[in-house]
Amino acid sequence: MPPAPLPLSGKSQRTTDSPITYFIQKAIETPGLISLAAGLVDEESLPTAEIGAAVSDLMADPATARAALQYGSTQGLSSLREKVLHHVCEADGVSPAEIGLSVGDVVLTTGSQQLLYLLGEALFDPGDIVISEAPSYFVYHSLLVSKGVRVLTVPMDDGGMDVDALEALLKRLTRSGEIARVKLIYTIDYYQNPTGLTLVEDRRPRLVELVRRFSTYQRILILEDAAYRELRYSGDDITSVKRFDERNEFVIYTSTFSKPCAPGLKTGYSLLPTELVGPILHLKGNHDFGSTNLTQHVVNRLMDTGAYHRHVTTLQDVYRAKRDRMLRALEEEFGDLPGAVWTVPAGGLYVWLTLPSHIDTGPGGRLVPAALESGVLYVPGEFGHVPDEAGRVPHNEARLSFGVASSDQLAEGIRRLRQACRGLERAGSRGGKVAVGV
Ligand SMILES: Cc1ncc(COP(=O)(O)O)c(C=O)c1O
Fold it and tell me: Fewer CB within 10 A of the terminal residue: the chain, N end or C end?
């Protein structure tokens, strides 16, 4: 007799493996494959010497060594919290006090992903509503599904989230009474994962104005995921949405050292509305009572010595060249394909490619095997979408990352992708299915 089923919780049963696992596995298994899929960072430029020096400096002094090797606090190293607070506020041209922030509102987490998770635990019950850009970060969408949250989406254009469409949605939800279930609006407002798009300046105060206006039943929060803010290759830095939350009431700002320094540090930070700090820390206390103390000391040291800021400047040059190489290759290879368009990101790690509607980029479509055959991998765009009411998602988009592949591989990878598309143009694609564009 087979054993009785495991007594899994509802949440565990709603939680599935990430769709991207298959793609990561493929990349590992297939020699010579060029991966434009992985969200990994450039390997050559990882700050190995700087981190080596920071660790040996810390260990050379018995006092700092002991402090770094002891347990830390749940909220995180106070000197690093102080530094990230000033780092963000300086970028926004304000003092912390001007926008109601103090070091007590800063929490350090195991990557910004942990904050996304803890926030989900603190805020959501099954049936609650989160409004997200479409497309968006599919790992966050999985987390929301696992919490039983209903995800409603707002389209994006060249200026990021369409705030007029957001306002229309909030009005509709007010009329239907569902506004009482809306808890959060999620935006990746700098060089978004997966599209590379940025929320333009004039929409930022508008976002705060909207949540203020529609918070009639309960507060609607904004989660500003600024994971890529520092990876900026053209244009000026743009003021955060947080900057317009003048009494620190509505906006959770989160970012990370993973992208601009090293993912292996897995250190993230957040600026939270004060009332949210307690609930987040209680949950974090149960979870791990503090992220890895040693890495917090390492990051603190990198910021103290200026190594962190120098590294960000180096990275900007490295990725700018890689982005430009990918864009040039797209122009060369896809410039003559009617209906093919792609974003030109001012930062981040991703370009979003939209193909003619007859080319099905989805995991069940024909481009994935054709691309594998040609030796290149991309992320199907539909992973970033939440199905609409009719269960549809666009089938003709792809996320292309210029993070981990070398310049030569980027050019070759795009050439291979075009080759894979050519095969499909001749053969036609998935019969009869109508692709929905964004
Ligand atoms: C938009 C976005 N937010 C958050 C994260 C989480 O990163 P980490 O936990 O390494 O800080 C990622 C990672 O790729 C991301 O793309």
Answer: N
